[in-house]
Amino acid sequence: MNRREFTKHGLAALASSTLLDNGAMAAEPEGLEYGPVQPFSFEALQALARQRSTAAYVEPTPPAAEVISNLSFDASQAITFRRQCALWTAGPGRLAVRFFHLNKYVGLPVRIHVVTGRASREILYRARYFDYGSPALASRLPGDLGFAGFRVMDTRTSETDWLAFQGASYFRAAGEQGQYGISARGIAVDTAMATREEFPRFTEFWLKPGSEHSSTITIYALLEGPSVTGAFAFEARNTEGLITTDVQADLYARADIQRLGIAPLTSMYWYRQNDLRRAIDWRPAIHDSDGLALWTGSGERLWRPLNDPPTLESNAFIDKHPKGFGLSQRDRDFDDYQDDGAFYNRRPSVWVEPKDDWGEGAVQLVEIPTDDEIHDNIVAFWQPRAPVKKGSALRVRYRLLWQPEDPPPPAGVARVIATRVGLGGVPGQPRPADQFKFAIDFDGPALRQLKQRYDVEAVVTVSRGRVINPYVIKVVGTNRWRAIFDVALTGKDPLNLRCFLRLGEHTLSETWIYQFFPT
Length: 519
Fold this sequence. Notes:
- This protein is mainly beta.
- The chain is built from six helices and 34 strands.
- Strand 30 (466-474) and strand 31 (481-488) form a beta hairpin.
C-alpha cells in the first residue's frame, strides 16, 4: 500500500464514573440513530488515553475483511452517503457532516459521537445511510460495520467538503481554492527509521458544533497505537475558504519511541523545473508541494526546494523555539503545470505555528523516491530533542493554516520563487566536466523598488566543491532578481548548498538551501 492510497482512502464509549454529569441533548436530526446519553468532557478523554497507555496494545480485527478488502475501485466509488442522513443537516447555518464507508484501504471502523453541552451520544452505524449501488453487496455486509471517517460540508454549497478525517490519524482541508492535496496527521512514529513505521489511528471521535451560522466545528479524538495513545482536540474554522485548525494533543507513551513526529505533514513531490532530468511526463511540473519553509527560533527564514531523490533521504534542521514550518506550494500559475484535472496550482500549503515553546529539536524532512504522482513521498514534522520514554507524557499545542502559500517573510526580505539547475559553463563553448549551474529567482517588495545594479551579492556556501563566478542580475522585463553561479565538484555524493542576497551589510532575501544529487 502506498502513502497516497493510505491517505486518500483512508474503543468503548466514555461511561466512567469520572465523567461529568449528563446534559440536555439537542433533538435528533432526521435520519440518524443514536446510542444512549453518556457524559463527556475533554478531561475525561485525557484520563482515558492515559489509562489506555498503561495496558498492552491489542491489534483490532477488521470487520467483514474478506468482502471489504476485495472491493474494486469502481464498487467503492459506487457507495455514496445519503445526504438526508447527514449530521446537523437541519441545523440553521451549521456545518453538515457526512460519513465515509469502509473500503479496501481503510478497513478499520471508527466510532463517532455527537456532543451537546456536557453529554454525548454515539451515532450508530446503519447500512441505510448509504446507497450501495448493488443490493447484493449490501446484503453481504454486517449491520454493525462502522464508519471509515467523516467529512465536513461547506455551508455555501452543501455539496462540497472542506475538511475530512479518514484512515489512521490522517486529516486534510481543501483550502481557499477548494482543492485537496497535502494531508496532516495526528502523530508520526518512527518515520524513515530502520524499524517499520507505526501508524497510530484515531479510534473514536466526538463532534461538537459551533454556534448557529458558525463556520467552526470542534473535534475530539482518541488516538491509539502500539507505542502511544493520545487525546486530541481540534478546533477547525472555515472563513470564506481560509481554514485554520487549532490543535491540542496530549500524548502518552506506551513504549520507548525512537522518533516521535509532532504536527506531521504528508505530501507528494515528483519533479519541477529544478530537476527536469526526472521529468518523463508531458506536464512541466507535478507536485502537491514544492518546498519546505522554515522560520527558525533565531528569526531566520529558510526555503528548501523539495527533491525526488535517488534514495530515501532524511534531513534534520536543528532549531530551538521554532516559530513555524510548513510544506508550501509556491508555484500557483496554471502554466506551471498545464493540468486541468488534478489542478496542482490550486493545492493548499500548510503552515505549522507552535502555540507553546517547543524547546530544542529539529524539523525533519523525509523524501522518498517515486516514479509516479500517486505516491505521497514527502513527510515533514517536528522531532523534540528529549527522548520519549515509556510512561512519559507530552502536551503540544499548535495551529495549522491551510492557505495558498507559507506566511510572507518580514518587510524588506524577498522570497525564493524559482530554482533551476543545468550544465555549467557558457553556452556555445565546450562544457566543463563535473560542473553545474544554479539559478535562483527572488521576488519581494524591497527588490522590486531596486533598479538594475551590480553590487547586489549572492552569498553562496557549499558542503563540497568550488563555487565559480557568482553574480546577481535583475531579470529583464520583470521585477525578479536572479542569483547565478556554477559549482565544480567530483564524485556522486549529495551536495548541500546555501544562498541569500545581500547589499552591503543588509540581507535582502530569505536563505535558499538545497540538496543536489550529481547522478
